[in-house]
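Data availability (excerpt). All sequences and predicted token strings are deposited with the supplementary files. A representative entry, SEC14 like lipid binding 1, is shown inline so that the format can be inspected without opening the archive.
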Amino acid sequence: MVQKYQSPVRVYKHPFELVMAAYERRFPTCHLIPMFVASDVVNEETSEDGSTQKIERRCALDVDAPRLLKRIAGVDYVYFIQKNTLNRKERTLHIESHNETFSNRVVVHETCCYSVHPENEDWTCFEQTASLDIKSFFGFESTVEKIAMKQYASSIKKGKEIIEYYLKELDDEGLTHVPRWSPSSHSLPLSSPTKRQPHKLDADYIKRYLGDLTPLQESCLIRLRKWLQETHKGKIPKDEHILRFLRARDFNMDKAREILCQSLTWRKQHQVDYLLETWSSPQVLQDYYTGGWHHHDKGGLVFTAATKDNFIRHTEILAKLALCWTCLVDLEGLNMRHLWRPGVKALLRIIEVVEANYPETLGRLLILRAPRVFPVLWTLVSPFIDENTRKKFLIYAGNDYQGAGGLVDYIDKEIIPDFLGGECMCEVPEGGLVPKSMYRTAEEVENEDIRLWTEMIYQSASIFKGAPHEIVIEIIDASSVITWDFDVCKGDIVFNIYHSKRAPQVPRKDTLGAHGITSPGGNNVQLIDKSWTLGQDYSMVESPLTCKEGESVQGSHITRWPGFYILQWKFHNMAACSATNLPRVDDVLATLQVSSHKCKVMYYTEVLGSEDFRGSMTSLESSHSGFSQLSAATTNSNQSQSSSMISR
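Structure token line:
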């Protein structure tokens, strides 16, 4: 596996020419880098006007590796080739280096760039990228990779310190200014105007607003952020939000990218970004929900005090109000009567939602006055809680929370809630028992899912291996426009559009119309009769479109003939897919569904009559992107990828 590194932008508040003078002092050796033993100039070229200089060096490194490994490898030093291109006119230095030793077994490639700060010409920026690919190394591939990454991380951390050291050395010598390059016989500008660069994360910003990160952690954040900018068509999550997903997976890029993709899809499907404006808690929750926000703990975290599919949303809204929080759960009075299956199921669902979509927001969770029945509840829920999150749980039985190691270690004494023996009057709602008159009937519970789905404009369908889902749209007038918008919620599918002069036989179980939606649990209808022959009884009018989990697809088809148009979502056999290097969101999610034989889509279709349509044809071209918003107000960034031309 190729290991990659991308540095943040490091800023030196010194002019480019002075930084270059400091940089040159690193050669031929540098006492600040003990492993940098020597360097020899093997080639040097300078342009006629002196504006450009190219230097090629052969550098020897004494890698800190076990002696046994060095003996097996048969080398004392590792040699690298470094090529520097200094452009004094443009005020840039480009550095490219690669390993010469063991180049057939290990490939190390690094590029660096010093340039003028885009907003201050008297400052200098530094960026660095690198990759490590260990093909084979005498059976010690894993060991060599760890050694290489450790050494590289150490040298990265020292990089800025070294330049700062030599800048100070120059200052001590009285050298505080180096004139810019200028042509000797032409009146040309001293430097070309600097183009404004896209926003990049710089090291000072990361340290000030995101905390202390190791060089490799910084690299993961920058690479994941860049990947989102290149592939995500919607709003880019904030840096601290991306960082939480990385921390939740111990900065494993692939795993963090996977859960972040799933979370962005979830946010879109459930319109989470609009909950605060569009959804209000039912009166029963407003009156009887026990819990709320109280104060800030010693770590500056907001904390909530609490004593016990609307309840979940209510919890989501509470979670959206704080970046990181401490939760106090008072279990006084808990008994077996409370371990009601629907209640436990709702609790597990809340844990699942928070774990998957709000990772690393829980600072700590203090469970107080845990009764003897608590181990039963803990046995039920703990397997569903991430290991890193479980470490944040502190459980106190009886009055143990009142002594040393209890609440006073995490919360200032003056703000401990009064009902827990503190001095602070707590205004968190106490809630209460819900009156039996407000209980839902068994019939209401049974029909809840049906009601939820029928109230939505989007329909839900399941697709199985060998059992596609199909809907039929009858077109009376030619030149009508069929439009669609669907999300692939689970698995990978192939989307097809067919035309037939014959009306397909709608199954009797279809009780909700031609779209074939029968129930939330099993929306799957096949309309194309097995006796029909493609090319005779029906024909394909659009090329098949492969869609991956997490994608939204919006498109249209301009009909040329009256008749019956069949929209089909078919299971996509992953075994037929070629492997990729995860360049897009769809590829990240693809690997999750290899063993599944069920897919799920949410879709909406509409037919625009030719007399009603007044838009431009380009506005109806198909768009196909990861996480594009369902709302028209948030889909204007979708890129057109396939036209609506008809093929027959």
